[in-house]
């Protein structure tokens, strides 16, 4: 299949691109490189440096390459920043998504995968979050993804666009020692902890240790980026069977302290940790039920062991302590 991947130079998007290429698909990456990295793009993928805010650039890419499907990862994704600057996230994510979808309809693209989020569930009303959990977005970022999910419902209803919305929890790990996580600013727990082991931070902060959990710290569901990529590709090839929505997670939660202890064991570093105040809106436990995608598509996370996840991330951070600035870009 020939596909266009927006945000295909980013952390999750680039992992999906590598697995698509490995599976024999023809891939075009559309990315403005503000958060992504040219060096993360697979050398066999076509890279178009463009912005989804420019409808003409999208039209030109779809006209030239005629993809059969689109996987949409490009967006503003910082939850905290979206609370401070709601229009930036709501405006950018929704407007750019609309530009992409309208162009896709005009160019006859009828397969669409949306990278959605577990932030749709805000403060969930159950321990294992399945697709029937009440949607109440926890931030403008989460709201922007829910709006796009609703728009996709109408794209299916009016134009026959088959879609999958994949709501995932904490993406983590590295696809290989040469393909990993490089954000600025970094907000994800595992790379923040590993930056202490690299000597790039003095300590890691635990935001609250008085939650109703076994060790008092928040529990989260960590999903290896390779498993996320696998789920996206399975969903893409299943769209002939109709549109669908899936929650993606391992079904197992690990606390902040468990993550830090695992990082200490893997790196051999003491990794000092201090306790700070709770962050507003942080639930004690967020763990996904992925029974629907397991049953319908046969997906099952292969890398659900926390030590394996941390080891893959540590291999990437050791070989690229300054991220993709450590190596020359791929040819595009």
UniProtKB/TrEMBL annotation:
The cofactor required is: NAD(+)
Q: Which domain of life is it from?
A: Bacteria
**One term of GO molecular function:** UDP-glucose 4-epimerase activity
Family according to the record: Belongs to the NAD(P)-dependent epimerase/dehydratase family.
Assembly behavior: Homodimer.
Its GO biological process annotations read: galactose catabolic process via UDP-galactose, Leloir pathway
Pathway stated in the Swiss-Prot or TrEMBL entry: Carbohydrate metabolism; galactose metabolism
- Catalysed reaction, written as an equation: UDP-alpha-D-glucose = UDP-alpha-D-galactose
Keyword DNA damage annotated: no
Record EC number: 5.1.3.2
What species was this sequence derived from? Longimicrobium terrae
Q: What NCBIfam families does this protein map onto?
A: galE
Keywords recorded for this protein, A-Z: Carbohydrate metabolism, Isomerase, NAD
According to its UniProt record, what is one Pfam family this protein matches? Epimerase
Entry protein name: UDP-glucose 4-epimerase
Recall the taxonomic lineage recorded for the source organism.
Answer: Bacteria, Pseudomonadati, Gemmatimonadota, Longimicrobiia, Longimicrobiales
* Segments forming domain NAD-dependent epimerase/dehydratase: 3-249
Q: Which CDD domains match?
A: UDP_G4E_1_SDR_e
Among its keywords, does the record have NAD?
yes
């Amino acid at each position: 299949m020939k596909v266009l991947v927006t945000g295909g130079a980013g952390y999750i998007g680039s992992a999906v691109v590598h697995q698509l290429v490995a599976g024999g698909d023809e891939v075009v990456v559309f990315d403005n490189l503000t958060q992504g990295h040219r060096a993360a793009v697979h050398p066999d993928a076509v890279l178009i440096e463009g912005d989804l805010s420019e409808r003409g650039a999208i039209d030109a890419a779809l006209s030239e390459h005629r993809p059969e499907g689109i996987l949409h990862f490009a967006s503003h994704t910082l939850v905290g920043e979206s609370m401070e600057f709601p229009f930036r996230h709501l405006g950018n994510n929704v407007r750019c998504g609309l530009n992409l979808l309208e162009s896709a309809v005009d160019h006859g693209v009828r397969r669409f995968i949306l990278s959605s989020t577990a932030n749709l569930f805000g403060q969930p009303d159950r321990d294992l979050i399945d697709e029937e959990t009440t949607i109440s977005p926890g931030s403008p970022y989460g709201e922007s993804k829910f709006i796009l999910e609703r728009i996709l419902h109408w794209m299916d209803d009016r134009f026959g666009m088959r879609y999958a919305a994949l709501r995932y929890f904490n993406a983590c790990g590295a696809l290989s020692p040469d393909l990993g996580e490089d954000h600025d600013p970094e907000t994800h727990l595992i790379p923040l902890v590993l930056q202490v082991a690299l000597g790039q931070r003095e300590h890691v902060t635990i935001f609250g240790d008085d939650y109703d959990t076994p060790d008092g710290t928040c529990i989260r569901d960590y999903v290896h980026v390779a498993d996320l990529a696998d789920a996206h590709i399975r969903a893409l090839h299943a769209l002939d069977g109709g549109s669908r929505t899936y929650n993606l997670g391992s079904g197992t939660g690990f606390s902040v302290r468990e993550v830090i202890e695992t990082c200490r064991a893997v790196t051999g570093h003491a990794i000092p940790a201090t306790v700070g105040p709770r962050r507003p809106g942080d639930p004690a436990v967020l763990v996904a039920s992925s029974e629907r995608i397991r049953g319908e598509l046969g997906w099952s996370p292969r890398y659900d062991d926390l030590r394996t996840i941390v080891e893959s991330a540590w291999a990437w951070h050791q070989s690229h302590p300054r991220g993709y600035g450590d190596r020359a870009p791929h040819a595009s």
